[in-house]
Amino acid sequence: MEKETTIFGIRAIIEAIHSGENIDKVFLQKGLRGDLFSELENLVRSEGLNTSYVPVEKLNRLTKKNHQGAVAQIAPIAFHDLENLVMEVVESGKTPLFLILDQLSDVRNFGAIIRTAECTGVSGIIIQKKGGAPVNGDTVKTSAGAIFKIPICKVDHVKDAVFYMQASGIKVIAATEKAEDQVYDISFTEPCAIIMGSEGKGINPSVLKVVDQKAKLPILGEIASLNVSVACGAFLYEAVRQRL
Fold first, then answer.
1. Which of 3, 132, 207, 234 is spaced 20 to 30 A from 199 at the CA atom?
2. What percent of the chain is predicted at pLDDT more than 90?
3. 127 phi, psi to nearest 5 deg
4. Of all helices (H) and strands (E), which one includes residue 101?
């Protein structure tokens, strides 16, 4: 069952963080000042929470209540620990297939990717704590409930996940148009993790420098790129084809 909760008010959010609630994202009003507001800012910063500074109109759309310039969303799922998940998958005897998402911003793309990942037997999805689409009710809806069936991990930086995968014997493949090899030239039969980039910027250049392989999809038309969820589906089903 979906468990999405929006909490509002500076003191309420401070208490929620202190009580260990699984805060997915905090929205703070641009330009707001005050001692209590500063206390909340310092707390979300120290906890490394995903935070956006937005106009008051955005907060008014999130809740009709007196939000005092602060609204937070509690994720409808519990996030998994990356190291524990990788260990569990490796020990299960199944060939790992992980998906790393580098700061996707569109919640519908995120949900669609989760749905495809579940259908293709992905072992787990790794996202960055800051800068990406929130895990909220829209994510649940777009994923058609798949979000409850696949483990999702949060890391401080995508490169943390890349390095840990490599140290665990898992090859990391970046999906990027900057590649020379096509997706069909890459072997997905061994343990691997696929990185998909954000809608506008793709994969961070610093991440591209540390991956094991890069691959692209052939583009035969005049439009230079595919929607990220469509591209992700093409990569995952090539992995499935090779593994069947």
1. 3
2. 77
3. -125, 165
4. strand 97-101
For 48-157, where are the alpha helices, taking DSSP H only? 56-62, 82-92, 107-119, 137-142
The residue behind tokens 């793309």 is 109
What lies within 8 Å, CB to CB, of 159 at 6+ separation is: 206, 207, 210
Nearest CA to 244 among 189, 194, 170?
189
**Site of tokens 């199944």:** 94
Q: Domains in the chain and their CATH numbers? A: 5-74 (3.30.1330.30), 82-243 (3.40.1280.10)
pLDDT given at position 91:
93
Residues 6+ positions from 99 with CB-CB distance below 8 Å? 113, 117, 122, 124, 125, 126, 193, 194, 196, 232, 236
How high is the pLDDT of residue 4?
52
Structure tokens at 105: 């911003």
Structure letter (DSSP) for residue 201: T
